[in-house]
Structures are given as C-alpha cells and as structure tokens.
Amino acid sequence: GHPPLSSIPLVQGSPHEVSPQDKTLPYNAIPNTGRSAWFNLFRLWRRNQFQQMHRVMERNFQQLGPIYRENLGTHSSVNILLPQDVAQLFQAEGVFPRRMRIEPWAIHRDIRNHKCGVFLLNGEEWRSDRLVLNKEVLNPIGVKKFLPFLDEVSRDFAGLLRQRINRNTRAALTIDLYADLFRFTLEASGYVLYGQRLGLLEENPNAESLHFIRAVETMIKTTLPLLYLPTKLLLLTETQTWKEHLKAWDTIFEQADKCFQTIYQEFCLGQERRYSGIMAELLLKSELPLDSIKANVIELMAGGVDTTAMPLLFTLFELARNPSVQKDLREEIFKAEKENPKDLSEMLNALPLLKGAMKETLRLYPVGITFQRYPTKDVTLHNYHIPAGTLVQVGLYPMGRSPQVFQDPLSYDPGRWLRREDTNFKALAFGFGSRQCIGRRLAESEIMLFLIHILKNFQVDTGSKEDVKTVFGFILMPEKPPLLTFRPISHIPQSRGQH
User: Could you give the CA distance from residue 415 to residue 132 in angstroms, rounded to a whole number?
Assistant: First the structure.
C-alpha cells in the first residue's frame, strides 16, 4: 500500500486568503508547494505518489487555499479550484486555446514521422483541423448519424450479459466488468470511426483487437512516468518504459492503418454510398489531407477506450449502491422510449436525469484529474496576477469533491444538476470552449446508450457499499475494480418502441 498522505511533507507556506477589495497581488505571492522542481518530482517518485496525484492535489488545495503554484520537473503551473476563477481563465484563452503538450506522444510522432491530430496540435493548424472535425464529431447532425452504431453495440453487449446469465443456474451474474468494458468501448469506437465491427463482443474475440487494447493500456500506463522528463532525456535514454511506450503507439498506428487501408480501398472502388462511419465521411468530403484524417481518427480511437470505459464502470458502481437513483433512471428511460420510439436523438434529449447521472459520475471520478490552458493575456485569478503564457491547471478531482463548490459533495445526487443551482463552470470533465474534448458527444452518447440498455434489462447490485479506492495512471481508475451483480428484470413494459 501507499504511505498515508498525512506523513508526506508536501507543501511550504500557508494559505493566503484575500478579500475582493484587496488590490491584485503579484504572481510570486501565490502560495507554492516548494521552489525546487526536481526535488518536488523526486519526492513524488520516492514516495510512490504519482498514482495518488489526485489526492496530493486535493490536499494541497486544502492546505494552501484555492490557488497555488507548483514546480514539477519540466513543468511549472498555477493550479486553481473555484468555478469563478475558471470563468476568468476562459475569458483569457484566446482564439487558439492551448493545452499542455504531452511530450512523450509528440516525440513518438516526430520519431516515426507521423502527423499530429488536434489533441497535440496548437495554433492555426489546430483550428483548421478542428473546424472540419467538429462537423462530423460534435455537430448534432453528425452525431445523429452515428447514434444507431452505438445503439447496436450497446444492445449486443446487453445480449452478451444475458447469455452469460442464462448459463448460470442462479439467474444472476457477479462479475468484474473491467475488461468487458474495454472490449465494449473499443468495439463501439471502432464501429463509429471505421464503420467496421471488430468482433470483440463474441465468445472468442479477435486476438489482434485484444492486442490493440493491451497497447492502449500500456500507452496510458507509461505516459505518466515520462510526462515530466526533459525531451532530450527521453530521446537519449533507452529505458524500458520509453521502449514500451513507443511500441504501444506503434501497435495503435498499425491497427488504425489496416482499418484505414480497407476503407480507402472501398472508397476508391466507388462502393455504393451510405453512412459508414466518421473516417469514410472525412475521406468523402476531402477537407483534410489523408495523413491528417488518419492522425485524428487514431487519436479519437486511442483516446476513446479507457476514457469511456472508466466512467461506465464508476457509474454502474454508484447506481448499484444507490438503488433509488437506479430505479428513477429506469423509469425515466421507459417513459422516454415510449414517447420517442423511433428517434434516438430525441429520446436521449428526453433523459435529463440520466445526463445528470453522467455529470455526477464525472464530477466524482473525472477521467483526467486536471485540464490546462495558457492564457493569451494577463489575467487576475483569485486576486493574483497571472502573466500571459502561464500554464494554468484546473483541479477537476478536488473541485468535484470540494464543499466550497458543491453541497454535500461526497453524495451521489444526479438531481443536483436539474435544480436551480448555479452550475456554470462546474461540469468540466470534457473541458470548455472551442478546445473542449473533440470526442465529447461520442463519449456522452456511448455512455448514455450503454446505460439505457443495461438498466432496461438488468438490476445492478453490489455487495460493497464502501467507496472505490482510485489511482491515477494518467487517467483516474479503480485500484481494484468492484464486483457487480446483474439480475434480469422480470417485467419490462411491452410498450417500449423499437429503434
């Protein structure tokens, strides 16, 4: 186990609370966690605290107040907690919002001579790619086209669970769903992006696709220890971690290249046209070069597996230990299906509580524990002067659990998002503004359709009512996945429509 956080000397200085009438204080007056960037990094490494960075950050806010500075290896940042400060940051992000560059990923692209996608790009190049992608991935018209693909895979997953239950004499299934959710999210993402089913929900899934999942897991796992090291050091060293990272990305690109070649060949042969996924649409419209299309689809594919699987797992766990919420959601789903039997898009819009449940999960368990911006002009945050170009990080995990921001923050209450409370800049798991997560609508639709088919067909229970212990491995994940029990619902209203 990890040493208790209380035993780790993390911060220097004391909280500096300021009142609104005080004059703006200089940047150097912001409380900090220690001036030596490399000593701070060494301390995290020595205490094995990389996996607890979300809790380290939470404690720093508790001790230093809602804004503090941190120097960590090659990174120097200002970390903020309060929604009103995030709103000020948004005002200063400029026309080309810039996020922190993930150097290990970018170096892989440079070494292998691959193009970068919008996740890694900045400036005009980012904007031109992004405007094209928005039409297929974020725009409601584009989203509506791929909803049936996600619905099909979600139905199939529910069918797979039912088959397993039918083989069990107890008419129930108790399972660690961790690996199955990875298979589901890769199957769904692959279908939407490439218009191809990968066969991951079959009894004996394709070994190549399972190899891809392992590559994505390795890529995520190896990113964090490489993140704060200098670029030159990564290029000069041949550490096992760096070798694994490069190999994982190579596997991800190889898998994507095979799908790309298949689609491109069919495209060149002039096959009869119907909607067959995002990549085919991008090829058809020819608004991006081929290498840009490939780069962006790869980022969507690699980024959409873990980052959708984890919210699904945490949501199922919270619904299992909050049966009244689960019951309310099920009733809302049946009602929405009855009123919108033929239109998936309309049905999803008629599920405010389910959307609230998704927001509530991402509040308590954000996939990324922070997101970043570099303000393009000087900005005042919590009465401190922040110079243009400073890396500012919003602490999503600490914000979601802060009593300064949320009433009764540790309770799972989807209804809080439906009441007349001020929720501005509080649901930030996908970021904000023009640089919000490009896969946001894909992830939200995938999560909602999955939950619809699970809750229509099964009662979800858990024997454990304790909080799930989480670790940070570049994304937030459970230290040990919870066991969940699925029982078929004996009576399902007959009036539900077919899509």
Answer: 36
d(CA 53, CA 51): 6
Does residue 26 register a pLDDT over 50? yes
208 pLDDT above the threshold of 90: no
d(CA 440, CA 143): 10
Q: What span, in angstroms and rounded, lies between the C-alpha atoms of 465 and 487?
A: 18
Strands (E), 272-383: 370-373, 379-381
pTM: 0.89
The DSSP bridge pattern shows strands 391-395 and 75-80 to be parallel
Contact between 124 and 322 under an 8 Å Cβ cutoff? The reply is: no
With a CB cutoff of 8 Å and minimum separation 6, the contacts of 201 are: 153, 156, 157, 160, 183, 184, 187
Residue 98 near residue 122 (C-beta atoms within 8 A): yes
The Cα–Cα gap between 50 and 56 comes to 9
Residue 154, φ and ψ in degrees, nearest 5: -65, -40
- 199, two tokens: 């066969």
Sign for the CA dihedral angle at 499, 206, 471, 428 comes to: negative
SS3 state at 458:
strand
How many whole angstroms separate alpha carbon 364 and alpha carbon 467?
Answer: 11
268 is in an annotated binding site: no
Read off the amino acid at residue 196: Q
- Smallest CA-to-CA distance from 361 within 405, 393, 325 is with 325
pLDDT at 188 over 80: yes
245 in Cβ contact with 226 (< 8 Å): yes
Q: How far, in Å, CA of 313 to CA of 315, rounded?
A: 5
Nearest CA to 104 out of 21, 203, 219, 191 is that of: 219
What are φ and ψ of residue 394, in 5° steps? -95, 125
Query: In this structure, what token pair is assigned to residue 347?
Result: 């049905």
pLDDT average, residue stretch 28-47: 82
Specify the DSSP class assigned to residue 239: -
* pLDDT for residue 415: 96
List, in order, residues 6 or more apart from 420 with CB less than 8 Å away.
none
Asked if residue 50 has pLDDT above 50, the reply is: yes
Contact residues for 302 (Cβ-Cβ < 8 A; gap 6+): 216, 219, 252
Q: How far apart are CA 429 and CA 366, in angstroms?
A: 6
pLDDT for 10 equals 43
**Sheet containing 370-373, strands listed edge to edge, beginning at the edge strand earlier in sequence:** 67-72, 75-80, 391-395, 370-373
The continuous run of DSSP H or E covering 342 comes out as none
Which parts of 323-482 are beta strand (E)?
370-373, 379-381, 384-386, 391-395, 458-461, 470-472, 476-478
Q: Report the alpha-carbon distance of residue 116 to residue 333 in Å, rounded.
A: 40
| pLDDT computed for residue 406 by the predictor | 96
